[in-house]
């Protein structure tokens, strides 16, 4: 698969350690990627979003389509860490929270075979924004892939069929990713170092608000102006990474 020709991806953001502040940070990242995609002229469609108690996101999943989108976003996978004083912190202490980001190439159905007999599909009321139809009809879809234990869901579309198709798109991407990871694990140590482990549990970046500094730990790339980056100007850090990666 030529990564330069992958023009459709799945973006998945999950709040990690840090409680409500982690979900707020996850929402900050979601907004950053959405605004960056809009600046690039890419199409972004929210597939599923679970809000936290403070309006942040416990989980945010979207599809993004555009020329070169995977090659632009592929280095975003991993754990992002934020250090800042939460709005709810009365003592003025800096807290550390995390959110994980996964960038998955969208996989065609012919590339990953999934048997209907391996699926457990349930429908529920979607709730949240979307009008009366969303709230009164069981349109939200949850799919369990029994062989792998992978669970995916979609709730933003107005019909069961559309939500099932969106969920299947995510499922194919995750099954493909798991297959790729198993292949990497079976490689020798030298080969693993060359191709990487694709381990999204690795901490890749820290957003330090007290020092107004973003550090990418893989390339020791450091920039300032966090607010500008989170406002959708992601290319500032991406360009710095590319310079360090040459």
Characterize the structure shown.
The strands form two sheets. The protein has an eight-stranded mixed beta sheet, sandwiched between helices. A three-stranded antiparallel beta sheet has the order 6-7-8, covered by helices on one side. It folds into two domains: 3-107 and 197-245, Alpha-Beta Plaits, CATH 3.30.70.1660; 116-185, Double Stranded RNA Binding Domain (2-Layer Sandwich), CATH 3.30.160.20. The protein contains seven helices and eleven strands. The chain is α+β, with helices and mostly antiparallel strands. It is globular and about 55 Å long. The model is unreliable at 128-134 and 190-199 (pLDDT under 50). It has helices spanning 20-40, 69-73, 132-136, 160-185, 189-195, 226-230, 235-245; strands spanning 8-15, 43-51, 57-65, 78-84, 95-105, 119-124, 140-145, 150-154, 203-208, 213-216, 221-224.
Key traits:
alpha+beta; Alpha-Beta Plaits; 7 helices; 11 strands; 246 residues; eight-stranded mixed sheet; three-stranded antiparallel sheet
Trace the largest sheet across and list its strands.
Answer: 2-3-1-5-4-9-10-11
Number of discrete domains: 2
How many E-type strands?
A: 11
Content-based structural category: alpha+beta
SSE order, one letter for each helix or strand:
EHEEHEEEHEEHHEEEHH
Main β sheet profile: 8 strands, mixed
Oligomer: single chain
Distance between the termini: 23 Å
What is the CATH C level class of the largest domain, in words?
A: Alpha Beta
Query: What's the architecture of the largest domain, going by CATH?
Result: 2-Layer Sandwich
CATH-derived topology of the largest domain: Alpha-Beta Plaits
Which radius of gyration do the C-alpha atoms yield? Answer: 19 Å
| Beta-strand share of residues | 25-35%
Mean pLDDT score, rounded? 84
């Amino acid at each position: 698969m030529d990564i330069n020709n992958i023009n459709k991806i799945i973006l998945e953001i999950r709040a990690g350690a840090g409680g409500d502040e982690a979900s707020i940070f996850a929402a900050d990242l979601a907004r950053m990627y959405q605004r960056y995609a809009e600046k690039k002229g890419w199409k972004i469609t929210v597939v599923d979003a679970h809000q936290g108690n403070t309006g942040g996101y416990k989980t945010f999943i979207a599809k993004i389509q555009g020329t070169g989108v995977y090659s632009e976003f592929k280095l975003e996978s991993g754990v992002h860490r934020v250090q800042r004083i939460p709005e709810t912190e009365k003592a003025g202490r800096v807290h550390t929270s995390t959110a994980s980001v996964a960038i998955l190439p969208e996989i065609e159905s012919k590339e990953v075979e999934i048997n209907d007999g391996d699926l457990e599909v349930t429908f529920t009321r979607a709730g949240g924004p979307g009008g009366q139809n969303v709230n009164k009809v069981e349109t939200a879809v949850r799919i369990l892939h029994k062989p792998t234990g992978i669970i995916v869901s979609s709730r933003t579309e107005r019909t069961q069929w559309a939500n099932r198709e969106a969920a299947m798109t995510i499922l194919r991407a995750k099954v493909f990713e798991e297959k790729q990871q198993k292949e990497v694990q079976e490689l020798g140590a030298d080969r693993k170092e060359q191709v990487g482990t694709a381990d999204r549990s690795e901490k890749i970046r820290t957003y330090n608000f007290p020092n107004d500094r973003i550090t990418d730990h893989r390339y020791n790339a450091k920039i300032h102006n966090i607010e500008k980056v989170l406002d959708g100007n992601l290319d500032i850090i991406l360009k710095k990474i590319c310079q360090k990666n040459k």
